[in-house]
Structures are given as C-alpha cells and as structure tokens.
Design brief:
The chain contains ten helices and no strands. By secondary structure, it is mainly α. It starts with a helix and ends with a helix.
Amino acid sequence: MDEAALKGRWESLCARVGAFKQVEESELTFDMLRTLYGHPVRAYHNLEHIGQVLGVFDSVRVLAEDRDCVEFALWLHDCVYFAERPDNEERSADAAAMIAGLLGCPAEFVGRVRSLIAVTRHSVPPARGDWALIADIDLTVLGAERAEYDAYRRAIRSEFAFADDAAYADGRTAFLNRMLEREHVYHTAFFRRELEERARGNMWWELDELWSCP
C-alpha cells in the first residue's frame, strides 16, 4: 500500500471516528504519523509495516467487534519505536491518545485504543475478541512465506544495529523461545489454523541461523 493510498485510508477513518469531520485534522494528523513512523529511521517498524497489517486486517475485518477502533489501534501501535527502549507500546498509546484528541474522538474510544495497543507488546496473553485479533494481526509476519520472513528478520537485526552479534542473538533468542513456548503462537482460531505451523517452522529456522554462524 503506497503512501497516497495510506493517506486516503487514514482520511476515511478520521471521518468515521473523529468529531470534527474536517480535512485539516486528517491531513495534520497524517503528517504527524508520517513523521513518527520515519523517526528514527526504521527498517521494519515503519509505514510499510502499517500497510501490511492493514491489508491483513482487511482480510479478517468480519472478525472484529469494533472495526474502526481496531483499525485506529493498528495505525498507531508502533508509532513510537526505539529498539533499545522497553516502553514503546506505552508511548505509542500516549501518542495515539493525543492524535485521537486532536480528532475529537470520545474518551471511551481512546481508552479502548490504548488497551488494544498495549497487547502488541506480546508479553502476556491478550483478552479475547479484538485484543486477541490485533495481537495476531501484528504477528502475522511470523507465519509468512520464508522469503518474507527472512526479510523481516534481517530488518529487525538492522534496527538493533547498536547491539553486537552476541547480545543480539541472546535477546532475539529470548523472544523466539517465548513465542515457541506458548501452547499456541496465535490466539484466534483463524490465524492458528492458517499460520501456526509455518510460524513455528520459521522461528526454529531463525534460531538455527542465529546460532550456526561462527
């Protein structure tokens, strides 16, 4: 999804969820999104990633309970991202609340968006419904075809360029093992059926790659 398509999609979402229904607010906030997702320069957690998860969401939109809220959370869930920080989801939720405020979204909507963004940390099992759905959408890359998965893991390594190989391997291994130790990688029946087996194969392959290098 190119930037023009993303902008048009954002403007449509703003018209549905915002109070003001003016082009100025959607243009201003899209410029803010573009700036956030471009800083710092990112190899994976960028607007291309947002386009990817929105595409996945379109294919499972029928499963969402509050579709606009899920879409808004997907737009904002990685808007603040510094690879060396542990609080990116919390800070992204703060940015989402600020942008929702500029659009005049109601407090209940903002609170729900905050809670949806929080689950993309993937540290604890999400609640069912939209929380499980957004967590799974964010992790669909784990179940991608091998070439796409390889590009993803290389992009993640690029974002952690400040870490030496040993430190990166330790940290990445901890993440992969945490995913693999779950009873299920995915929380919804749909993604479990479609992607679970390939996701596990990809992660075992990456572990082999991490520790087979001299």
